[in-house]
Amino acid sequence: MNMDAFKAVRDELTAALAQRGRDPFPVFIRSWALTILPFAFMCLLLSRWPHSIILWGLTALVAGFVQNALGLLMHEGSHYFFHRSKKASDIWCDVLVCLPIFNTVQGYRTPHFEHHRSSGDTADPYIDLYTYPSVRHLIRQFLVDCIGISAVRRFFSRYGSSGDGKAARGNPAYAAPVFLLIQAGLWFLLFRITGQWYAWFVLWVAPLMTVTLVVNRFRTIVEHYPGFLGIKVSRTSITGWLEYLCIAPYGYGHHLEHHLMPQVPYYDLAFTHRFLAARVDYGENEVAAFGYLNAFRRLVGELRELEKKARP
Predict the structure, then answer these.
(1) Total Cβ atoms within 10 A of residue 206
(2) Are 153 and 129 in contact, with CB atoms under 8 Å apart?
(3) Are 258 and 234 in contact (CB under 8 A)?
């Protein structure tokens, strides 16, 4: 994208967004309710057939995608998009979104804002998620995600003796007791539904340690992989309904627009994309019009080509 052309229409876009003027809180509550609905539905089915192994597996898989969606809502909450009051936005985000998935909005915000400042540079805390020396290394990282090792490493890097402690700084006093209350409630609910004490771990913790990390890595690669034409910041992916639901809900696929204007709330990103597309020429590498999966296939093919060229 020609940045001079973007700057020329930025004020016009800002004025158009101001006219939309939606109340963020009802949008958040509706998004949150729709997010947890698939897991609630699967739990309802499981309460009817608690001994179905297939249903246990499907419920765990759905839980992983729901947790991925909660993770993206956490991203929106880190930008204070849930309430006109920043304090209220953080409280709602912590209680309904972050603490259920073992995080806090401040714990997420610290590295995420650094990602915005340093995207594409070695200082970016997410750089290991989207740069790979080889396809073999990429596959190995996905396998590490699949068996939960990445989750354990992430936990100890944040809270272990080797961590710098930044993630825990600034967390509110209510975080620990509310976290315990939420997780105890989930444990009790899943125990009552299934009659099994380990249901919380199988249906909530295990998906969070595996499915969500795999989806997060997959999505981040497509959004920030520096290949194709060498983009440094990010790209937008135009999704179909399945990719929207499973990979990038809430308009998260409009990632270039988010990095260009982080102050634009998630529910206005699609409008922002349409507004800019009508006035500014996007670069070939800045929009994956063919979606996440096809973009991922393309980048893997390019990585293979780079490997071949590097061989003596």
Answers:
(1) 17
(2) no
(3) yes
The number of angstroms, rounded, from the C-alpha of 160 to the middle of its chain's C-alpha atoms is: 24
User: 């809180």: which residue's tokens?
Assistant: 25
Q: Which of 130, 127, 104 is nearest to 223 (CA)?
A: 130
Q: Are 96 and 179 in contact (CB under 8 A)?
A: no
Q: Rounded distance, CA 241 to CA 147, Å?
A: 28
Contact yes or no for 199/207 (Cβ under 8 A): no
Tell me the pLDDT tens digit for each residue of 216-271: 999 999 999 876 545 566 889 999 999 999 999 999 999 999 999 999 999 999 99
Asked whether 129 and 217 are in contact (CB, 8 A), the reply is yes
- Residue corresponding to tokens 């804002």: 113
The reported pLDDT for the residue numbered 35 is: 97
**Rounded distance, CA 189 to CA 183, Å?**
10
Residue with tokens 């929106």: 76
**According to the model, what pLDDT value does residue 141 have?**
96
pLDDT at 234: 83
The total of other beta-carbon atoms located within 10 Å of residue 100's CB is 22
Geometric angle at alpha carbon 120, from 114 and 86, rounded to 5°: 30
Given a contact cutoff of 8 angstroms between Cβ atoms, the answer to whether 104 and 94 are in contact is yes
Tell me which H or E stretch contains 36. Answer: helix 24-48
| Cα dihedral 23/27/30/34 (nearest 10) | 180
Collapse the DSSP code of 177 into the 3-class scheme (helix H, G, I; strand E, B; otherwise coil) and give the result: helix
Q: Residue type at 51? A: H
